[in-house]
Amino acid sequence: MKRFSNIAIGASLLVATLLLSLGIAELAVRLIMPQQLILVRSDVWQAVDTLGWAKRPNLQTDINTGERTVGLTTDSLGLRIPALGRPVELSATAVRVLLLGDSFMEALQVEYEQSLAGLLETHLSDSLGTPVEVWNTGVAGWGPSQYLLTARWLLSRVSFDHVIVALYVGNDAVLKRHDYVPPRSPTVLHRLRLPRSLSVREFRDAMFYPVNDFLERRSHLYILFKRGSENLLAKLGLGGPEFPFEIRRQEAASPRWGITADIAADLGAEARRHGVSTTFVLIPSAYQVDTVVFRSFARTFDLDPANVDLDQPNRLLVREFRSRNLRVVDALEALRIANETGRQLFGSVDEHLSAEGHAVMATLTVPPVLEAMRARDPSTTSGPTRRLGGALVSPRPDGQ
Asked: Residue 125 burial (CB < 10 Å; 0-12/13-18/19+)?
């Protein structure tokens, strides 16, 4: 009996020591190398009809995606705006630009004034000599179909002077268009349950994924471990970065480039129908810009350099867009040049654009947008915002 008691005490001490060590390691990682936890913020995003999900309206909160804590303020439509809002008297006469995009335009890694939307407002206002409002519809996880649906809905209700569509080439070159996205949460969480069979897949879905979801939302140490084990996890299908299909040479013949350009063409045609011009901006991936990041990707997926073309997504999209007479700005070369000067263009934890990255994007985007706006027929210049029943339109395309 005494032997079993000693074993129990030894085991308890071992577990306690292990837990204490993990706690100290967790604290050390949070202080020295903070990681990007998975965000599950039901107060920020909500399920909406037609678009799938969107930011909630009238938010005033802080958010941290791993780089720093920044303020997040939204208006009655769920669009991100400056923390102090916008003066009503200026909004009535301001030039309005519609900005469409995903998490790169939502820009939760930087303050609003440092984002492309905020910088465009500043630079365009200075150049035009009149207030400019950028209606930033960017939402994490959205794609070209949602950009088109949002443009159709807003352009029919509000007068704009220009439309800017920011496409992230890392996942916006799509194989399918969607005319409707059912309402759902932007983040899928797995619930812990008993396995229904002895298969590896069932154990993964019932046990491993729920535990993974729990730790991803709470443990910086776990995220650091995952980043160091990306190669193994990616091969097992348990996490890690997404495979960069778009840079594989065999994808050159994929229909994704033409399908994406067709959606863009429809968006441009919708804008023209309302007397508005459109500029499409291509945002490259960090691994296309920074060779250090690419080498990490190459190791993770055992990529053969002979089978990879880092310029391919941008080159093919530019070709397809121009064949449809669409105005397109490719940011790849400008970001590479800036990267060579030592500027940190992407986050060290969250690999979205940094404040420096947004600044380069603004410098590249402003001139063609100004040219397009100044070339616009004065007879199509926007008037006051159209309102429905005396109130600004609802944030949902179906108006519900």
From this structure: middle
Cα(307)–Cα(215) distance, integer angstroms: 35
pLDDT in tens, 204-242: 677 766 777 677 667 777 766 766 665 555 555 555 556
Q: What values do phi and psi take at 213, rounded to 5?
A: -60, -40
Instruction: Provide the residue type at 196 as one letter.
Output: R
pLDDT digits (tens, 9 = 90+) for 263-294: 999 999 999 999 999 999 999 999 999 998 88
319, two tokens: 């070709």
Angle made by CA atoms 77, 173, 271, in degrees to the nearest 5: 45
Amino acid at 106: E
CA 333 to chain centroid, in Å, comes to 21
DSSP secondary structure, 171-230, as one string: T-S-S---S-B----SS--PPP---SSS-HHHHIIIIIHHHHHHHHTT-HHHHHHHHHTH
What's the angle, vertex CA 252, arms to CA 165 and CA 149, rounded to 5?
25
CA 70, distance to chain mean position in Å, is 16
> For the chain, first and last CA: distance in Å?
70
Please answer whether residues 40 and 187 qualify as being in contact, where contact means their C-beta atoms are separated by less than 8 angstroms.
yes
What is the DSSP pairing of strand 162-168 with strand 278-283?
parallel
Q: What is the distance between the alpha carbons of residues 31 and 46, in angstroms, rounded to a whole number?
A: 32
CA atoms within 13 A on the CB side of 354: 14
Which residue shows structure tokens 């941008």?
314
Handedness of CA 302, 304, 305, 307 (dihedral sign): negative
CA distances from residue 1 to 5, 6, 8, 236 in whole angstroms, order as listed: 6, 9, 11, 44
Residues facing residue 97 across a β-bridge: 134, 162
- Whole-model pTM: value is 0.82
